[in-house]
Amino acid sequence: MSAQNLAAKVQPGSNVRWDRLENAAFAAHPSVLAPGGAANGGTRFGKSYWNLIWGIPVVLVYLFCYTAPVWGAAAISVSRFQTYQQDPEQRIPLSGIMFIFVLALLLVNFVRWVSWALAWRSGHASRARTRAPRLCRATSSSC
Questions:
Q1: pLDDT number for residue 113
Q2: Are 69 and 99 in contact (CB under 8 A)?
Q3: Helix (H/G/I), strand (E/B), else coil: 131
Q4: Are 69 and 98 in contact (CB under 8 A)?
């Protein structure tokens, strides 16, 4: 029985068995409902630990780069509560290095954003031309 037939049999105000409706909707796509499948995230990190080994340092570098503006501003600022003050010849280059990390992070994120936007536009444009609208009924003549 299809998901549309199940949904049509539901009376207003009655309880909906979402598990049955979901199983019927994805009956033609068993990989979606398979445990450990691509939809459940099982194949991304499950087969190789190298992704995790490379992922942890990348996350740590991203966290450092995201906090670098705070460290850069703290390196250049002078507080009245500090007991030791560095010379400006040491503070300014340290702050500059921190802001270079920020610039690198901004450039990487900008490139990722532009590439994602281009891929998204090209993917949606090609699918819109080849796929029929999903909201049309089979009996409707306007689709």
A1: 92
A2: yes
A3: coil
A4: yes
